[in-house]
Amino acid sequence: MRLDKFLKVSRIIKRRSVAKEIADKGRIMINDRPAKSSSNVIVGDKLEIGFGNKTMVVRITQIIETTKKSDAAEMYEILETRQAENFD
The RNA-binding S4 domain covers which part of the protein (predicted)? Predict the structure, then answer.
């Protein structure tokens, strides 16, 4: 499955266009390698997603083409969430 579609279906990012924009700006890594929105993801891949001042690291546990909101969180497990340090 394409990265941007996975992020939308899993509801990590609410809109596919936003997922595409974030990926194409280099703010998403798949298994420690820079990813594009068109990159394919599989079960077991580790995603590191930069959201402004927050970084989220997840592992893909299952791929589902379409899902209900209540089942979306089962597609991944959160490994780490960290805030960017503020040096002001």
Answer: 1-61
Predicted TM-score (pTM) of the model is 0.88
* Sequential DSSP letters for 18-70: HHHHHHHTT-EEETTEE--TT-B--TT-EEEEEETTEEEEEEE----SS--HH
pLDDT digits (tens, 9 = 90+) for 31-56: 999 999 999 999 999 999 998 889 99
* pLDDT value of position 84: 72
- Taken in order of first residue, the domains within the chain and their CATH numbers are 3-83 (3.10.290.10)
Number of neighbours of residue 60 by Cβ within 10 angstroms: 19
Check the CA dihedral 41-43-45-49 and report its sign.
positive
